Amino acid sequence: MAIQTHKRAPGTPTWMHLMTPDLEAAKQFYRQLFGWTYLDTGPDFGHYHFARARDHDAAGLAGMQPDDQMPSAWTIYLASDDVAADAARVADLGGQVMVPPMEVGDTGSMAICVDPTGAVFGLWQAGRHIGASIVNEPGAMTWFEVNTPNAEAARDFYSQLFGLTAHKMEGMDYYTLHRGDETLFGVLQMDENWQGIPPHWMGYFAVDDTDASLKRLQEADGSIRVPPFDTPYGRMAVVADPFGATFSIIQLTEM
Fold first, then answer.
1. Which domain holds residue 247?
2. Ranges for the VOC domain (predicted)?
3. Residue 35 CB: number of other CB atoms within 10 A?
């Protein structure tokens, strides 16, 4: 089991968090899909729920306000050692800060930002909460990428923001960003096949069987956005929950 016990280095995806218009229905959907259990943090934190896989924190779920005009979506948070300083650099590098840095009790500090190409992401400076404590296991987050019509601009933005190096994958417009020997996330160039889809971060959850997971997803009123296909890294699909929040699932190849 891949367990995380310490905060992650800056720029590392550390948490995924869902905003949904129907918290109870979303909990049921993801329970059926991933087998998640939940920990309700109570009224002081707006009944924010920690989704648990194998008794470890896998992701977060929160209910939207009735008048919230934003679509239901998963947000990916990148680790930060100093949210205030990183948020200032976001603006200096051509991005925007949607939600200014704020403390979340003793759990940590956060901000919500937009990169120069239009993809939304979060910053998380760990306090008591380090982010996901289980990764690369069924029901846990495992990979992340920015899908954008300007991959070079996104590559340069995140590289400069966090001091990362970028490598281009041979034969395709795809970059991987690295801190030393560790691969943190990818940047994918959107082409004409993505027409009508805005820039976004995509998070992947691991599953033990992609096709069986898709059957459970459809039984729980989820939808398949991109049918399953095989890659060198595993069999994957792009899906959405009943409220339109999009994510990917992948049955990881043993590598």
1. 141-252
2. 12-126, 140-252
3. 14
